[in-house]
Amino acid sequence: MVIHKHDILTLIQTRLRTDLSILEQAVALARDTATHGDCLGSSKYETMALEASYLAQGQGTRLLEVVRALEYFKRLKPTANTNIGLSSLVLLADEEAKQQLLWLSPEAGGLKVPYHGLEVTVITPRSPLGQALLNHSAGDEIHITIAGKLRSYEIVEIY
Fold first, then answer.
1. What is the pTM (predicted TM-score) of this model?
2. Could you tell me which CATH class the domain 89-158 is placed in?
């Protein structure tokens, strides 16, 4: 299979723009709910406005994370890498030869986009797998314990 890193970058940016739009609506709704007159309690036991303000704060924090991730991916210029580092796209194979595509990024960890029958997962170097992959090359094997189980992966290719 031919993998075009630029196409995957475009898919990631599109997904982040969609997430951003949804989050902007969620933040507005949570903020409006928190400040709506009907939500203000008449006693200390009526906490709907307080709960809505916590939700608005959490949604706002998530919104900032998505904005930061989108800005990172918009500035990114796809380049080929020989060793795995930030912005590397890595094709891994596990012990059963099941392949997965991973994009190493400082932002948007956990984001997934479909690409030609595979799912591209964005991981950060803060994750155990991200840490294990750093500075390795195609053909290397890595071993990592995930959920108490030792797993082995072969780095098939780096884009």
1. 0.85
2. alpha beta
